[in-house]
Specification:
The structure is a single chain. It is built from 4 helices and 5 strands; from the N terminus they run βββββαααα. It has about 150 residues and is an alpha+beta fold. Helix 1 packs antiparallel against helix 2 and helix 2 runs antiparallel to helix 3. Pfam families: FIMAH (PF22888). This is Exo-alpha-sialidase.
């Protein structure tokens, strides 16, 4: 996040530019508050879909940042598996196995193979999404991160 301040008529006006964007939970939500927690994780307090309930979730800051390689992408798969957003163990294992192949080509700096296998990873995500083997939040986040990683390699 980048904060800038401008003073107009003696009053300071702040604006914030967010460097990262990440779908935390699909749907529409009202008032929200994001805070650093004592254990180093982030806490998000928000108003639920029906505007009648408040909810809280916590996650680590890595979840919000853009990934740098397939190992980071694999850690996001681990996170969603732990959070039961990828409820079927077999689905998570297929994703991680595919990312192991991507990692091999990253180490060899074979750009075309990395991009080809990342596109294959997207196809696997699409198939799992269509077969309801992965929740929408995990699917959206992994697709977005994979697109970012592909752009980095091109």
């Amino acid at each position: 996040m980048r904060k800038t301040a401008l003073t107009i008529d003696g009053h300071t006006k702040y604006s914030f530019d967010w460097q990262y964007e990440q779908l935390v939970k699909p749907g529409q939500y009202g008032y929200s508050s994001l805070t650093n927690l004592p254990d180093g994780e982030l806490g998000l307090f928000y108003e639920g879909t029906e505007n009648t309930e408040m909810d809280f979730m916590k996650f680590n800051s890595e979840f919000l940042t853009w990934i740098r390689d397939s190992e980071n992408l694999k850690s996001i798969v681990d996170y969603f598996e732990k959070e039961n957003e990828i409820p079927e163990d077999e689905a998570a294992e297929h994703l991680k196995t595919h990312l192991t192949a991507v990692s091999h080509y990253e180490e060899q700096e074979e750009t075309e193979k990395v991009v080809e296998h990342l596109n294959g990873f997207k196809e696997l995500l699409e198939q799992q999404n269509n077969n309801e083997m992965i929740e929408e939040a995990a699917y959206s986040a992994l697709m977005k991160q994979t697109d970012h990683l592909i752009a980095e390699w091109k």
